[in-house]
Amino acid sequence: MQKKKETRRKQIIDMVREFGEIPIQKLNQSIPISDETIRKDLIELEEQGIVVRKHGRVIYHANNQNDSILVRNNRNKAEKERIASYVASIIEKEVSSNIYLDSGSTTFEIARLFVDDTNRRVVTNSMSIASLYNEHNNPNVMCVGGELRIVDRAFLGFWAVENIKRVDIEVAVLGTDGINEGTGIGALSYDDKELKEAAAASAKFTVAVFDSSKCAHTGPLEALPWEKIDLVVSDDKMPDDYAEMIREKTRLVLV
User: Do the strands 57-60 and 51-54 form a parallel or antiparallel pair, or are they unpaired?
Assistant: First the structure.
């Protein structure tokens, strides 16, 4: 019984850590246990300082709010670096001014490749990307502002959306924590969804980037359908059925 309990709680921690923040309802749907059991598990995990429950959602904590960022950045790192390298090659050829980089571990890898570029400006909702530019003494970064989501250091909300509408963007590069039932890229919250929509609407060209492990996850909300994305870049481990489905709607490159 104790081993089952430990295995179950590891599943919960892994899911919450992967997404950073997740609706309790999604945990209920993903782990075949009763609502009462998952409630008790979450209470104990919260008492241990591993998660925080807030308004029907679970937020990863683990005594270090940056830990979830570090975990994400190091998971499937080789795949993310390949994706970043491919997207950077397109940007170097086709883009001369403003690039929007969404918050996320794959977009952060893209930022690494442009952090010493003094010609192109990066517009972002990621505090991590803005901090990276600061560390390299490169002022060519503009943060959209808004309300800071601590768990992944992303700015979201009304001000972020309004500010992104005022910027002419050549290419918007969007990340995601999961594929929304295969119909498009997912979002963790309505604020996240609205900002992705606004960035795509302000851009001349929209790219979605994610490693193939995201195919196993479903975003709580659909941010953008494939039809509104000009290019999807992922790694060559993507399951064939997902690749075929995406190619029916838009251009897909696997690296």
Answer: antiparallel
